[in-house]
Specification:
Elements lengths: L12 E4 L2 E6 L2 E5 L15 H4 L5 H4 L5 H14 L18 H9 L13 H19 L16 H11 L3 E6 L5 H7 L4 E5 L10 H10 L6 E5 L12 H13 L3 E6 L8 H9 L6 E5 L1 H4 L10
């Protein structure tokens, strides 16, 4: 699959010569309607060559920053140049044997599943979250399977949340490079809240409130927040998280907490604050199990 053309916009799309191959679970579809789409970077195609097929805002889309960095790193290494790659972070550890064994033992289960995910898995995630909350701050929550939606990755879950909700998206600057483009793809208004080194790259409550006030015409704000921050690594203080919770609550906003390490403990104080303010319907907690398994068992996270 070409990693530079439109193939990357759909996991089952392959452009070859004058045809388009769509591979799905139900078989193969061959068409020729995209005859002008060859393996050329999307940003390099002219508007005339796309024949009005692609929406205007996508015709100027740039390649993924992380993938672009990886291509640059590969090119320099091929040229024999020393490279210290801080672009795409991935676990250096092998897949845990427990995961491999479980996947192998369930390989026969190939039928379509419930849209929300397996009931048993969702209940297990809910119970795990409740235990982590109690362990980290002594607060008892009662999540159950109905509160959980299982997806193939945090990025897709984040994309679907932005797609399904009204209002506009708010991001701290700097933020992980995926968040902004997802708002762009969903045709959402995107607003930034600048953070400063002198303040430890934390979101300021006053700056956040000002952003909400200035953009109230766009509807309900949706704040995407992860702690520790990606890319700064900063963990927001409990006091600052409490201030953020108050500002979001006053604006009737939504918070997406990106707990990508899966432990749901680092931002748990913010969750507690929002729940104490009867704000539970405005909190979306996104956690990834693949990142959780990055940590060895000695961390006592399991």
């Amino acid at each position: 699959v070409c990693s530079r053309c439109c193939c990357r916009t759909h996991p089952a799309m392959i452009s070859k010569k004058n045809s388009l191959l769509l591979y799905g679970k139900q078989g193969l579809v061959l068409g020729s309607m995209f005859r002008s789409l060859h393996c050329t970077p999307l940003a390099a195609r002219s508007r005339s060559s796309l024949g009005g097929l692609v929406k205007d805002r996508f015709q100027s889309a740039e390649p993924s920053s992380t993938l672009a960095i990886n291509e640059t790193v590969a090119a320099r290494r091929s040229a024999g140049q020393p490279v210290f790659n801080f672009g795409l972070g991935q676990s250096p550890f092998p897949v845990p044997s427990e995961v491999k064994d479980s996947l192998a033992s369930h390989a026969f289960q190939k039928d379509y599943l419930q849209v929300q995910g397996l009931q048993e898995l969702r209940q297990s995630i809910a119970s795990f979250t409740n235990r982590m909350q109690s362990k980290s701050n002594g607060t008892e929550f009662s999540f159950d399977a109905d509160d959980v939606l299982v997806g193939p990755g945090t990025k897709e879950l984040l994309f679907m949340t932005q797609m399904a909700t009204t209002g506009y998206t708010v991001l701290p600057a700097p933020s992980w490079v995926t968040y902004g483009p997802q708002a762009f793809m969903n045709d959402r208004k995107l607003k930034w809240v600048q953070t400063e080194m002198e303040d430890g790259w934390q979101i300021g409550a006053e700056s956040l409130a000002k952003c909400f006030q200035e953009n109230s015409a766009f509807g309900r704000p949706l704040l995407i927040l992860n702690s520790p921050s990606n890319p700064t690594g900063r963990v927001h203080s409990k006091e600052r998280l409490q201030e953020i919770a108050r500002v979001v609550d006053e604006a009737d906003g939504i918070v997406i907490l990106m707990e990508e390490n899966g432990t749901v403990s680092l931002s748990s104080y913010l969750i507690v604050q929002l729940f104490q303010q009867d704000f539970q319907n405005g909190v979306v907690l996104v956690a990834g199990e693949s990142a959780l398994f990055f940590f060895p068992k000695q961390c006592d996270l399991y």
